[in-house]
Amino acid sequence: MSDLGLPGSVVNMPEAAEQKALWNVRKAGLNIMMSMKGDGKPVSFIEDCAVPLEHLAEYTAKLTEVFNRYGTEGTWYAHAGVGTLHVRPILDMRRDGAQKMREIAELASALVREYKGAYSGEHGDGICRGEWVAWQFGEIINDAFREVKQLFDPQNLLNPGKIVDTPKMDDERYFRFPSTYQRIPMTPVFDWSSWNVKRDPLTGEQTPPGSAGDTTHGLAMAVEMCNNNGHCRKFDAGTMCPSYRITKEEQHLTRGRANTLRQVLSGQLGDEGLASDEVKEALDLCVSCKGCKRDCPTGVDMAKFKIEARAARVRAKGLTLRDRMVGEMPRYAPWASRFSGLVNGIERAPWLAKRIKQALKLAPQRALPAFNGNFLATADSSATAERPTAERPIAEKEVLLFVDTFNNYMEGDNASAAKRVLEAAGYRVHLNVTQGQRPLCCGRTYLSSGQFEKAKAEAQRTLDFLMPFVERGVAVVGLEPSCLLSMRDEFLQYGFGEQAQALSEAAYLFEEFLLHAHSTGELSLTLKPMEGRRVMLHGHCHQKAFDALRPVEQVLNWIPGVSVETIESSCCGMAGSFGYEAEHYEASMKMAELTLLPAVRSANKEAVLVADGTSCRHQIQDGSGREAIHVARLLAQALA
Hints:
The chain is α/β, with parallel strands linked by helices. It has 28 helices and eleven strands. Strands 5-4-6-7 form a four-stranded parallel sheet, with helices on both faces. Strands 9-8-10-11 form a four-stranded parallel sheet, with helices on both faces. A hairpin with an 8-residue loop joins β2 and β3. The chain is globular.
């Protein structure tokens, strides 16, 4: 590069993490190409062809002509330097894809023979290539293959039909989507119309959302984005999939769950649809970590599929008492907080606590959540006394601190600390005070318990309250990742339109907002040194899924003298109510013991544990006896 006059274009990457990230781009590239929407997908059957390098350009051009003849295009990938280009034509196997596949294979095979190449150049043979590679070896060698197979496997038990006596490539018995494949009619609760599209393989143009005629209104097409690539089976793939990491069973894996959902939505597992026992069993250990939303190369969002399944199950089977208690927490939290002495005293009466936990099927090892005041009722909310209007100009720096149910009624110190930090940075802090009405809620507890309509109603209330602020350019800042990030995720699929989009763009986690304000030169925050202070950081799963953990690391490094160590952990295992449920307690603790709890126990007593998630802090406390705090509290301690 220096010889070419471009020495500055060489990037030095000495750090292992950077090197890994770079190689992951190369590894993920093929699967990213597989993530195109619509029924047409890149199909693997000629991607292994290799020709002598001097013929590669001509072969590539002629193969492109073949694709265009059949109204499609190829997706190209991998190592041209050895005469191999992994090319997959885009075909719709539900319709005429099989016929086109055979005809393209015949023409590609002829081209490979013309250039004296190899039809199977790297990946090997198999069901799809078997009939096309026989000419490479000739009749004598093929007979020898068959004889060796017979000698070592006389009953033909080991991988039959893969190397010798292979079936025809268009034998529909081996198709994932045969010509008889159908989707059941159903109406999902979320808006999946952006998946319900058709894509022109030549131009890449997509039809408008909801136009492809999918009988599940896009849900099945979203599920079918899983192409079985198996990235979720890897143990170095970020957050996902914590349940697979502790069970090693395909059933508890993003791919396994997606296959179950696909079979259900195509009517292959009975007529109960998403309410079936098969779906309940497959999703039983899914902790809705959203790791797959980020780490899966094709973006399969199992957490959102689980919401669909829970809602369908509740419609068909009804709610349990525990479901009601979990879902309705935002409604009874004000009363529980008002009588916190009585409510919290339940744990001091073991016989009573035991009976309550048995009735609710909660793990006896867990302490019931403790309520502690009402931050919004006691905080200075003078900045919020005057409801904003779009016409009123911004007279000073403003921000709205959205205090969720957990940080309002259980851990008000976090909200108080965040408010102090924002005010110290020169902001006028509004709060989500509803002036005598029921406090606002993102609806997350309703979603997790299958009460979709109530969740949507709560989201609408929140949206209505926040829009005057958003329209005036005021950022909405939240403390609890699962709550705030629902405004950037689930709110967009309720069908709220442009208002939801506007809110999603204005919504920040606390540390994200500080970093954003710093990048624009708006932040004025002085922090005193904490020399020699070691901070161990555990990221909430949703922070990782939305790439929102790095802002926490950066903000913590603003404190002079602090050294930050991020624990390379998957899900903590608590995951809202999951870790409280008696049948899931053991799985919850196994998830925590993978890396999180051992790392916490190994930390010296002076180390500060930081975790932004309410569930994460509770799991750390239960599993190690150590207290973890929200990043806002540490920043508040460091205020000069």
